Amino acid sequence: MNKKTIPSSEHHALVFTVERRSGKTLADQLTQSIEAAILDGRLLAGARLPSWRDLASQLGIARGTVKVAYDRLIDRQLLVSRGPAGTRVCDHLPPRTTGERRRPPDDPFQTLGMTTPGAPPLVFQLGVPAQDAFPATTWSRLLVQASRQSARLPLSYPDPRGELTLRREIAAYLAVARSIVCHEEQIFITTGFTAALGLIADALIAGPCKAWVEDPGYPLARAGLALKGITAAPVPVDSEGLDVAHGMAHAPDASLAVVTPGQQAPLGITMSLARRRALLDWAAASDAFIIEDDYLGELQLNGRAAPALASLDAEERVIHVGTFSKTISPALRLGFLVAPPRLLDQILQRAMFLSPAPAAVTQIAVASFLAEGHFLRHLRKMRRLYAERSGLLMSIVGTATKERNGGGLAHIFNLPDGVDDAAIARRARDFGLGPSPLSSWYTDTAQARRGLLLGVTNVIPQSIGAAWQALQGAIGEFVDG
């Protein structure tokens, strides 16, 4: 290592170092060494540095190397060349940093019991399809075709609602699968549920308001509403779904409701017909609107999925939202909303200026996936596969606990009151497992029911035994006996 101690008129001895065996270039090392001395106050404003020829000789490096370092720092406005007066530290420097560096914030996704985006799906993870059953060959072919087709599109601004071919295919699918009669003009393509939620909120909300949310319910929906200045009014869920009477009694001034009537997230309950009619009557009487999050769509493992709430809406009060995240892949970042005719103008204006549809390539590929019949065949295959994996999980978990229930694509493993299910979920990450803490789905986590949501989509026979043993070990660290 070469060192050079530079006497300073500011009563400091400055040590510049370069290490020839380092993976960094000598110019990079010298630049960083001088920059650090300036920024931490060892080289003060106006201090003169050795000429680049002198410093090169003293460090035993090429003069060009020192000149490169000096030039970089001049470009960064940390040094200034003053001709015969030499190279000096600039008179006006960035504010000095004091104290310790602020530690990075906690991973917000783990705080919500979610895995970090971009990471491979984990056993027991919610919200992701089966990694081993993705139709990669078919999808690759359609994506190549879509790329070629999009390259021939007119060089003009696209429709902010999305590609017409996809909107037509979605309208046809909804009519058959979800009993929703709608026109392609009512469909807006979004980058997922949260984008649709933001678009709807921008269109409907002109000032502070209140929204009914299911308790327990989707944490990101509550967070999204809060970012839009909407106060979430938690409404409990029972065996029939959202307790409409409770909402009317405790938050009568709400102007919005966000619900998952098909398969309640996370409890898996299908909202009863009586509750659906009560919710629609409330919306009509209160001049309110309902956001129907149809997040699992046709992925009903027992029997046929109930018709969508929007299929009963005669007063144009329901905005139906769906995505392809659970049915095809969350990596698509593709969803849609169906706007009732009375809201078309407001939502179109917001889509045009604030949230236009995503790039055409993925939309065209998904449209072909639907048009060629791959989507419905894929759904049938996934329902059979997930039903098998759900049974496999219950055959193992059922031998270990008497308290179990489940719904949709997840089972709930109940835990004793007071147990930190979020801590267990974090510990499970160390074993490559992705359960979600049930308490994170409640508005008041301190009073929440404790448990682990175990997703079934990536439960396979070859790994489930070891995965369950590892999860039991993680639970055992926090639960006595």
Describe the protein.
- There is one protein chain.
- The chain is an alpha+beta fold and 481 residues long.
- Helix content is 38%, strand content 16%.
- It is built from 15 helices and 17 strands.
- An 8-stranded mixed β-sheet has the order 6-13-12-11-10-7-8-9, with helices on both faces. A 4-stranded antiparallel β-sheet has the order 14-15-17-16, covered by helices on one side. It has a 3-stranded antiparallel β-sheet with strand order 3-5-4.
- Strand 1 (2-7) and strand 2 (13-18) form a beta hairpin.
- Helix 6 crosses helix 12 and helix 7 crosses helix 11 (344-353).
- Mean pLDDT is 88; it is low at 5-13, 99-104 and 401-405.
Distinctive features:
alpha+beta; eight-stranded mixed sheet; globular; 481 residues; 17 strands; 15 helices
Low-confidence stretches: 5-13, 99-104, 401-405
Give helix % range. Answer: 25-40%
Tally of alpha and pi helices: 15
Oligomer: single chain
Strand arrangement across the biggest beta sheet = 6-13-12-11-10-7-8-9
Largest pleated sheet: 8 strands, mixed
Mean pLDDT: 88
Structural class: alpha+beta
Tell me, briefly, the overall form: globular
**What is the alpha-carbon Rg in Å?**
30 Å
Q: Termini separation (Å)?
A: 58 Å
Total E-strand runs: 17
β-strand percent reads 15-25%
Structure summary:
This protein is an alpha+beta fold and 481 residues long.
